[in-house]
Amino acid sequence: MTYSAILTPFAIILELVVFILGVYAGYCRKKPYAYLFAVTFLIFAAFDYLGSIGVSTDIIAILNIVAVLAALAGMYLVVREKSA
User: How far apart are CA 43 and CA 58, in angstroms?
Assistant: First the structure.
């Protein structure tokens, strides 16, 4: 058994935990940027899962770009909130 067979499911679980915490922070704490971080980690979980089942690398690359753009938008909102 390789490390990736053990670590990938563990990483997916952690990414889903971060997703849940992001939704919580967005909804209960009224932090709109938290939704973007939640989406980022949900996409990362999908990225890891799809990679582990052998989905086309083109689709995975597109998911990666979308996740990074969501994180970038979230960081923009964080920076804008701190400077306001």
Answer: 15
Burial class of residue 54 in the structure, from the number of CB atoms within 10 Å of its CB (0-12 exposed, 13-18 middle, 19+ buried): exposed
The single residue listed with the structure tokens 């690398």 is 57
Q: Is the pTM of this model over 0.90?
A: no
Per the structure, the count of domains in the chain is 1
State which amino acid sits at residue 53: I
Quick: pLDDT tens for 15-26. Answer: 999 999 999 999
Residue 47 backbone phi and psi in degrees, to 5: -55, -50
Contact 41, 18 (CB under 8 A): yes
Supply the range of the domain harboring residue 70. 3-83
Q: How far apart are CA 25 and CA 36, in angstroms?
A: 11
